[in-house]
Request: fold
Amino acid sequence: MIKPGSQWFDMDGNLIQAHGGGILYHNGIYYWYGENKNGKTIEAGRARYRVDALGVNCYSSRDLITWNCEGTVLKPVPKDPSHDLHPSKVIERPKVVYNDRTGKYVMWMHVDTADYLYARAGIAVSDSPTGPFEYIDSMRPNGWESRDLTVFKDDDGSAYLIYSSNDNGDGTFRSNGTLHISLLTDDYLSQSGTFTHNFVKARREAPAIFKRNGRYYCVSSGCSGWDPNEAEYAISDSVLGPWEVKGNPCIGPENEKTFYSQSTFVLPLQNKKDAFIFMADRWIKEDLRDSRYVWLPIMWEGDRMKIAWRDEWDLSMFE
Reply:
């Protein structure tokens, strides 16, 4: 059973450390990548809480219930304080996609300094889904700041980086003011130069994009630090937009707080029609290593998506 908000353990009995994560399905196996926060939480001022950057973990499963720990597949670099992966830095929201052309597994992540002024997107690659991933570099995509991000791979093999940026759309700037959606190059390692400004001045973060019946859906949260807020979703006929905002997909008690969680990914289940799992993090800011995972099934009324709280559930509801 999936029990949203409870402690989840791997097959070795250890707390799963895959925060802000995403899932890659490849050759019959689900690979879950996320932030390793298995360290002491410290208050960094201005209501900021952090754990030393400890790298990116990977877990594998065939049933989405039992998870094998594949270890830290992108390791920190403790001996070089200037490196993006030094423990003093920030590593958030890693997402991995497989490139059919190159045979490489490509990881994008938000890398930052503790004051969140570095605001860059980092890239790593591997020949295996279980790593090790080799860190390449970081960038400000298309010259813009980049914080919360995700990656979406379309049916035609094209991939897109979606990131919160400091763009207000009118020549002024504010952190996470606008979401940018950027077409990646064929190798998924850089920007193609094609990108769009979306949700201008709306201050959306924690984006998750998926495709259903030929249309694109984007779920995101507002900006309230570690504290939960109301989710919002939008629909488009093109991944680059324009997007039509539809409102809060969550229904029932605590829906205005997204059930005390924040979006990170939407997982389409393989070989099942209209089967999607909303993945979110329930941040425990005073003890980030114990932050919980909130996974809930998405239900549908036409094009309208609905997410309701369930104390526990399993995949049989999609049959």
Remarks:
- The first strand starts at residue 19 and ends at 26.
- The mean pLDDT is 96.
- Residues 164 and 179 are 5 Å apart (CA to CA).
- The chain has no helices and 23 strands.
